[in-house]
Amino acid sequence: EIDTSSVVEMAMGDENASVTFIEYASFTCPHCASFHKNQFKDLKADFIDTGKVRFIYRDVYFDKFGLWASMAARCGGPERFFGISDMIYEQQRDWIGDGSDAGVADRLRKIGKVAGLTDDELDACLTDRDFAQALVAVYQENSEADNENSTPTLIIDGTTYQNMAYPQLKEIIDGKLN
């Protein structure tokens, strides 16, 4: 039995918003990076920042690099998570680079340092095996419960959708708000 009590659900927006939007995403997924570069910015401005939507981000781990990126993003706590996540998605091709373990770890550390984390904080976060196991356990539990099988998967008020252009996404959310 893995203790998952240390895993915080990363969320933004009004806890009492009338619409809940869950995104399942992987930091190594190019479609997820595109979603965060494009649709997410409008979603945040139009719905999250205005208190209409509660956004919950749930990690998907297809590979160890996605797990490492999540551990780096979570290293700054909930207050820094989305800022670090933005950098990880924006620089996805760069930090994945040649796909070498040492190179990926080094480039994720650089992102963490730009976000204001110290070497000691990053070392502690990136080498915490118990936390890594807890993250994977939470991912597996959530993924199974929501029948997630691709990224990004979007769940809007309990209905599952695949990635889509922002006008379609806006139409769905507007429909849930009315």
Blueprint (SSEs and pairs):
Elements: E1 10-12, E2 19-25, H1 30-37, H2 39-48, E3 53-59, H3 64-74, H4 77-90, H5 92-96, H6 101-114, H7 119-126, H8 129-146, E4 153-156, E5 159-162, H9 166-177
Parallel strand pairs: 2-3
Antiparallel strand pairs: 1-3, 2-4, 4-5
Helix pairs in contact: 3-4, 3-6, 6-7
How would you portray this structure in words?
The protein is an alpha+beta fold. 56% of the residues lie in helices and 14% in strands. The chain has nine helices and five strands; from the N terminus they run ββααβααααααββα. Helix 3 (64-74) packs across helix 4 (77-90), helix 3 (64-74) runs parallel beside helix 6 and helix 6 packs across helix 7 (119-126). The relative contact order is 0.20.
Strand order of the largest sheet: 1-3-2-4-5
Amount of beta strand: 5-15%
Our measurement of the CA-to-CA distance between the termini, rounded to an integer number of angstroms, reads 43 Å
Let me know the largest β-sheet.
5 strands, mixed
Helix fraction?
Answer: 55-70%
Rounded to an integer, what's the Rg over CA atoms? 16 Å
The helix-and-strand class reads alpha+beta
Total count of helical runs of at least 4 residues: 9
Shape type? globular
* Low-confidence sequence ranges: none
| Mean pLDDT figure | 96
Give the beta-strand count: 5
H/E element sequence: EEHHEHHHHHHEEH
